[in-house]
Automatic annotation (TrEMBL):
<feature type="compositionally biased region" description="Polar residues">
    <location>
        <begin position="469"/>
        <end position="497"/>
    </location>
</feature>
<dbReference type="GO" id="GO:0032330">
    <property type="term" value="P:regulation of chondrocyte differentiation"/>
</dbReference>
<feature type="transmembrane region" description="Helical">
    <location>
        <begin position="84"/>
        <end position="110"/>
    </location>
</feature>
<feature type="transmembrane region" description="Helical">
    <location>
        <begin position="393"/>
        <end position="412"/>
    </location>
</feature>
<dbReference type="GO" id="GO:0030258">
    <property type="term" value="P:lipid modification"/>
</dbReference>
<keyword id="KW-0812">Transmembrane</keyword>
<keyword id="KW-1133">Transmembrane helix</keyword>
<feature type="region of interest" description="Disordered">
    <location>
        <begin position="450"/>
        <end position="497"/>
    </location>
</feature>
<dbReference type="GO" id="GO:0047184">
    <property type="term" value="F:1-acylglycerophosphocholine O-acyltransferase activity"/>
</dbReference>
<dbReference type="GO" id="GO:0036151">
    <property type="term" value="P:phosphatidylcholine acyl-chain remodeling"/>
</dbReference>
<protein>
    <submittedName>
        <fullName>Membrane bound O-acyltransferase domain containing 2</fullName>
    </submittedName>
</protein>
<dbReference type="InterPro" id="IPR004299">
    <property type="entry name" value="MBOAT_fam"/>
</dbReference>
<feature type="compositionally biased region" description="Basic and acidic residues">
    <location>
        <begin position="450"/>
        <end position="468"/>
    </location>
</feature>
<keyword id="KW-0808">Transferase</keyword>
<keyword id="KW-0256">Endoplasmic reticulum</keyword>
<feature type="transmembrane region" description="Helical">
    <location>
        <begin position="355"/>
        <end position="373"/>
    </location>
</feature>
<dbReference type="GO" id="GO:0106262">
    <property type="term" value="F:1-acylglycerophosphoethanolamine O-acyltransferase activity"/>
</dbReference>
Length: 497
């Protein structure tokens, strides 16, 4: 019988007992399914063409808070406290410094909550707890603070193209702010979205959708109504069902310490994406074939994850919205050691379990070593096709092993069992990574004023000119590479529920 306790409602305890799953997980899934139905109702009956944005904000916020209280009880008040104090900071401090104060407060408040949950209450007790949604709210608070700072204080010529596109030129009202942070579509599992995209959706303003032209650039289009999301939602629900089935059968037959428990993340994040799509949020325009793209705020690309042939490829396709957050608030603004700073921020954001820090320290080493290997050897295997195929097979196998090796402390949480695992491997991948960095030449790259100019981080120019293949927002923001190792860990345990 599932014995895990919950801080939220126990109304569904009989269902929890029947399906042999912890009550907190049952609450989460049922609430997300309710949110899916609410999203369909929201799109049909509270469409922006029928209802004012004020009503849409109110309903989205109240539904979100109801779901939060059902899942987490009075602990959900933390969401309002964190959002409310952050809003006061923005209003009182002003655009010049609000980003710094909001960043320190929001991350600090999250960290205090994580410390009390881990070290004052039961260590590792809950598989779904209130700090999960707070992690997403922290992303939204800090992202918006930087976007307002960019839009209301910095000069346009000081901003990168993506920063200009995301810049917010006026202070949000309190209702808009709480709605953005706590709406029912994203309060339980995210994903992060830009404030401008969310407000455009709520207000129903015409969007400048894009279509890829033959030269690879995106061309703006107007006058086409947003298509029905039904097909996209159905596809994502199918992925959810398959992921859940796999998780409940094959994955559960093995201890988590010996397998990579991805299916529950595929399920949770794909369902969250489907909820937003069902409400009409997430449309990113049409591709060159005129097919609607509903991946504006999608969080992962499963096929690319499973077929990753490098750390970079894995990181570029896993928990993409969090990766973009790390890029925007840390990597491209860091004055020194952006990769290390980004990994460190990722570890702090994830929580206070020591295993998280071991994972991200290892992740820094693995990422730098993989980059050095790729820069020094990949060009030798570009031709002929058979040689390239062999290279891809080998790098795929190495990538899967190194990722699994890296994230074990994230699953085990504590230092002692993590070090026992690494010692059983004789720290072989750590040693290999250090040797690679010592023996192979590292290409020197010049960081310009903006980190997006760095060859390490930037993708090829043609990709910069298009939206990121995930289209995280409608303003052409490139996906990042290093910032994402944060989700390496997230790939497994109880992280972003």
């Amino acid at each position: 019988m599932a014995t895990t306790s919950t801080t939220g409602s126990t109304l569904l305890q009989p269902l929890s007992n029947a399906v042999q799953l912890p009550i907190d997980q049952v609450n989460f899934v049922v609430c997300q399914l309710f949110a899916l139905l609410a999203a369909i109702w929201f799109r049909i009956y509270l469409h922006s063409s029928k209802t004012s944005s004020f009503i849409r904000h109110i309903v989205a916020t109240l539904l979100g808070l109801y779901l939060a209280f059902f899942c987490f009880g009075w602990y959900a008040l933390h969401f309002l406290v964190q959002s409310g104090i952050s809003y006061c900071i923005m209003v009182i401090i002003g655009a010049e410094s609000m980003h710094t104060y909001c960043f320190v407060f929001a991350l600090g408040y999250l960290t205090v909550c994580q410390i009390t949950r881990v070290y004052i209450f039961d260590y590792g007790q809950y598989s779904a707890d209130f700090s999960g949604p707070m992690m997403i709210i922290t992303q939204k608070i800090t992202s918006l603070a930087y976007e307002i700072h960019d839009g209301m204080f910095r000069k346009d010529e000081e901003l990168t193209p993506s920063q200009r596109g995301l810049a917010v030129r006026r202070m949000p009202s309190l209702l808009e702010y709480v709605s953005y942070n706590c709406n029912f579509m994203g309060i339980l599992a995210g994903p992060l979205c830009s404030y401008k995209d969310y407000i455009t959706f709520i207000e129903g303003r015409p969007s400048y959708v894009t279509q890829a032209s033959e030269n690879g650039k995106e061309e703006a289009q107007q006058g086409r109504a947003d298509p029905s999301p039904n097909a996209a939602v159905s596809d994502k629900l199918l992925v959810c069902g398959l992921s859940l089935l796999f998780h409940l059968t094959i994955s559960n037959a093995l201890p988590v310490e010996y397998n990579i428990d991805e299916p529950k993340y595929y399920f949770a994040w794909t369902l969250a994406d489907a909820i937003n799509n069902a409400a009409g949020f997430g449309f990113r325009g049409y591709d060159r074939n005129g097919v609607a793209r509903w991946d504006l705020i999608s969080n992962l690309r499963i096929q690319q994850i499973e077929m990753s042939t490098s750390f970079k490829m894995f990181l570029d396709n896993w928990n993409i919205q969090t990766a973009l957050w790390l890029k925007r608030v840390c990597y491209e603004r860091a004055s020194f050691s952006p990769t290390i700073q980004t990994f460190f921020l990722s570890a702090i954001w994830h929580g206070v379990y020591p295993g998280y820090y071991l994972t991200f320290l290892t992740g820094v080493l693995m990422t730098l070593a993989a980059r050095a290997m790729r820069n020094n050897f990949r060009h030798y295997f570009s031709e002929p096709p058979l040689l390239k195929f062999l290279y891809d097979v080998i790098t795929w196998a190495v990538t899967q092993v190194s990722i699994s090796y890296t994230v074990v402390p994230f699953v085990l949480l504590s230092v002692k069992p993590s070090l026992m695992f690494y010692s059983s491997w004789y720290y072989c991948l750590h040693i290999c990574g250090i040797l690679v960095l010592l023996l192979l030449p590292v290409k020197k790259t010049q960081r310009g004023k903006n980190a997006h100019e760095n060859n390490e981080l930037s993708r090829p120019k043609k990709f910069d000119e298009r939206e990121s293949s995930l289209g995280q927002n409608s303003f052409s923001t490139p996906n990042n590479i290093c910032s994402q190792n944060q989700d390496l860990g997230s790939r497994h345990s109880l992280l972003t529920q």
